[in-house]
């Protein structure tokens, strides 16, 4: 394993080096949080694909393939569909808003009264997403080094926190681009063909496994529908995804670069399912489907290649973890702390302090909180389900309603967040965290309340809507903080 260990160590050292390099580029709030809003198509596509394809998409996607066959691709496939929908229909308008968070978008659309509660919901979602990604380090480092779970979480989490704190979005963008390349080589170009060959080819796989393993809908229609609700719609509204859209250098980059990333996700989904199906032929009696990825890598790949593929799994986890971490810190600082500070000190001006330093401190603090929570928490699936149910049940309707329905009001948006989020929590207590009913009924309740309350309350002020349309069209004024940053930079 010495060669494999060397590959992993070089990879981890490279991540830290890029964090240091990114620190030299992060001179303003815009640089630190959204990479200066100037990424080109290639880097945008690679980094967007990297953040949405995390440990759940790689290790979990192979596990679903092991359990259900080709239909196990549906979870990651719906992630790709969500990214395609976001990129084709919404990303250009989102990028033109020139904001930093989803809650800022809600404030612009509804007149500055919807952001606080939505910020708390979004913070809870991004925190849980970062925690679940961090827990995955334990699985990978256990395969690599037979390492204690707590030590593995601290080691992997500390590396991500370090490069994210140093350079913010610039560091994360650079590391994600490397992670995208490593994942492409490790999973698509190496593990996929090797797994199929080791299993005897597709003809042997079909001979060895039940026909249900090759049924595109074998996982079940209800499961697929739930994946669409949670993951496809979750891609449309998550802060971690929107913050990447904000990095695009142009409308065209946001639209077509994201479309390329979404298409890549569809290919990655099928690859994971095929790898899992091959693992079922090779190891028909594994204790857990999630062991399929690590087992086939450890037992079937040659020295050196094994290290690269394990580095690919590590890359998948790190890209999601770092993206969720900076999203969590951005929401905590910009949507929660800055509002609390403004309420306590009404005359305070955010420009009076070093915003790069402030955001850097928040990433460090949130990173420590994520690592500590990951050490305590055990059930990754339940934590991730709670996060996505809260996100979709509480925020989907007011966000899409704000983008698509002019008559939606601030009162309707707030009611939708409170009722939808509350219904999801209550129904998870009643039906169980992993049940489908909470997201079904929570969404319906949120939609009904949004429409009823919006129609029962006065329409949004015409001046607010005019300013909103100007920003959507890219004709609105730049945020004052960015104008000041640009003048300082020049």
UniProtKB/TrEMBL annotation:
Ranges that cross the membrane: 6-23, 44-66, 72-95, 116-140, 152-173, 180-197, 217-238, 259-283, 303-332, 361-380, 386-405, 412-433, 439-465
Gene3D superfamilies, alphabetized: Sodium/glucose cotransporter
Gene Ontology CC terms: plasma membrane
Keyword Ribosomal protein annotated: no
Keywords per UniProt: Cell membrane, Membrane, Transmembrane, Transmembrane helix, Transport
Compartments, as annotated in UniProt: Membrane
One GO-annotated biological process of the protein: carboxylic acid transport
Keyword Cell division: no
Membrane topology: Multi-pass membrane protein
Annotated InterPro entries: Na/Glc_symporter_sf, Na/solute_symporter, Na/solute_symporter_CS, Sodium:Solute_Symporter
Major location category of this protein: membrane
GO molecular function, one term: transmembrane transporter activity
Family: Belongs to the sodium:solute symporter (SSF) (TC 2.A.21) family.
Protein name: Solute:Na+ symporter, SSS family protein
Species this chain originates from: Streptomyces aurantiacus
């Amino acid at each position: 394993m010495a060669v494999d260990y060397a590959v992993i160590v070089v990879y981890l050292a490279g991540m830290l080096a890029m964090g240091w390099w990114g620190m030299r580029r992060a001179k303003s709030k815009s640089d630190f949080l959204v990479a200066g809003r100037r990424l080109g198509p290639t880097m945008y596509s690679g980094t967007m694909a990297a953040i949405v394809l995390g440990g759940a998409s790689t290790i979990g996607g192979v596990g679903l393939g092991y359990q259900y066959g080709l239909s196990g691709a549906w979870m990651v496939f719906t992630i790709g569909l969500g990214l395609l929908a976001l990129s084709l229909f919404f990303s250009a308008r989102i990028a033109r808003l020139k904001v930093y968070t989803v809650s800022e978008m809600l404030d612009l659309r509804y007149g500055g009264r919807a952001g606080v509660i939505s910020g708390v919901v979004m913070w809870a979602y991004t925190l849980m997403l970062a925690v679940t990604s961090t827990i995955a380090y334990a699985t990978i480092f256990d395969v690599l080094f037979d390492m204690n779970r707590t030590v593995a979480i601290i080691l992997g989490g500390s590396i991500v926190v370090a490069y994210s704190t140093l350079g913010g979005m610039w560091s994360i963008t650079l590391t994600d681009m490397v992670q995208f390349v490593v994942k492409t080589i490790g999973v698509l170009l190496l593990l996929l063909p090797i797994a199929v060959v080791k299993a005897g080819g597709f003809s042997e796989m079909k001979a060895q496994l039940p026909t249900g393993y090759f049924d595109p809908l074998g996982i079940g229609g209800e499961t697929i529908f739930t994946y669409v609700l949670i993951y496809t719609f979750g891609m449309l509204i998550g802060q971690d995804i929107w913050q990447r859209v904000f990095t695009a250098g142009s409308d065209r980059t946001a639209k077509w670069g994201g479309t390329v990333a979404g298409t890549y996700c569809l290919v990655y989904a099928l690859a994971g399912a095929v790898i899992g199906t091959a693992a079922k032929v090779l190891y028909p009696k594994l204790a857990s489907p999630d062991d399929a990825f690590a087992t086939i890598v450890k037992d079937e790949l040659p020295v050196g290649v094994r290290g690269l593929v394990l580095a690919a799994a590590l890359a998948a986890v790190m890209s999601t973890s770092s993206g969720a971490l900076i999203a969590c810190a951005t929401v905590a600082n910009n949507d929660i702390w800055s509002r609390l500070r403004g309420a306590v000190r009404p005359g305070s001006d955010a420009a009076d302090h070093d915003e790069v330093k402030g955001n850097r401190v928040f990433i460090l603090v949130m990173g420590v909180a994520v690592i500590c929570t990951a050490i305590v928490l055990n059930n990754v699936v339940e934590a991730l389900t709670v996060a996505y149910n809260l996100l979709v049940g509480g925020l989907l309707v007011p966000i899409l309603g704000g983008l698509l329905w002019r008559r939606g009001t601030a009162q309707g948006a707030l009611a939708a967040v409170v009722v939808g989020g509350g219904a999801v929590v209550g129904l998870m207590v009643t039906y169980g965290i992993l049940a489908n009913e909470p997201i079904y009924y929570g969404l319906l309740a949120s939609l009904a309340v949004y429409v009823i309350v919006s129609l029962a309350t006065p329409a949004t002020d015409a001046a607010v809507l005019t300013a909103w349309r100007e920003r959507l069209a890219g004709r609105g004024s730049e945020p004052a903080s960015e104008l000041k940053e640009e003048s300082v930079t020049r």
